[in-house]
Design brief:
about 270 residues; alpha/beta; 8-stranded mixed beta sheet; two-stranded parallel ribbon; 10 strands; globular
Length: about 270
Amino acid sequence: MRLNINPEFRANWEIPTYEINLWNDKKNSYCIIIPVINEGERIKMLLYSMSELNIHLEADIIIIDGGSNDGSLDLALLKEFNVSGLLTKTGLGKLGGQLRCAYSFALDKGYDGIITIDGNNKDKPEPIIEFISALKNGFDFVQASRFVKGGVGINTPMSRWLAIKYIHAPILSLFSGFRWTDTTQGFRGYSRRMLLDEKISLFRDVFQEYELLAYLNYRAPILNFKCIEIATTRIYPNGIVPTKIKGINGQIKLLTTLFATCFKKYNP
């Protein structure tokens, strides 16, 4: 389909190889991208919550799998939960690779906007409808935040809370010119026009892990895209924390990516 995409620009997109395991055709103008890898019961709980909210009536649900082997993505179960698509990344890259696969697929199918929510069930999905409304009303970047009025953060690890509150969000706010409060959140929404902007140029192999998240928080306000934060609820379970950013090395990598972003390493 590839509606309104410059063919020359599209030909230069760097996208990992992926398989289409399920596709029930486009039914809505917006879609929800859920990146997962071995999320087990957590993805099932998220999909159950979204099904109870009838989210599929407002946006198509597309899962992008990074190579799960835990049996959590049974196709019959996904169809029961009204999932429209399942893509499996087979090429290189981690989260950044997954997102490039799914975003390119969604843009080629002609969606007006994309909402991304993590597949680990830490984010309550109720605000998805508000995200869609914001995109319909002209916002280009909708960021979830547990720190704005009405937002809730439960069991957030202290090291993560301190890093977001006093390092990550303030630095991205300073360098981007927009006051962000919760910049490591993967729960966010983007307009089609922003994702297709050649000055952003997100389909590049430089985005392998978490670089794309910080980059868009930095780059979108600089290019005068309309940004907003929306209050959300993010709950970390007791016990083992479901996160791919682990330990001191994970925190150091996050900060290294932050400074690389702010000093224009990822600019096209």
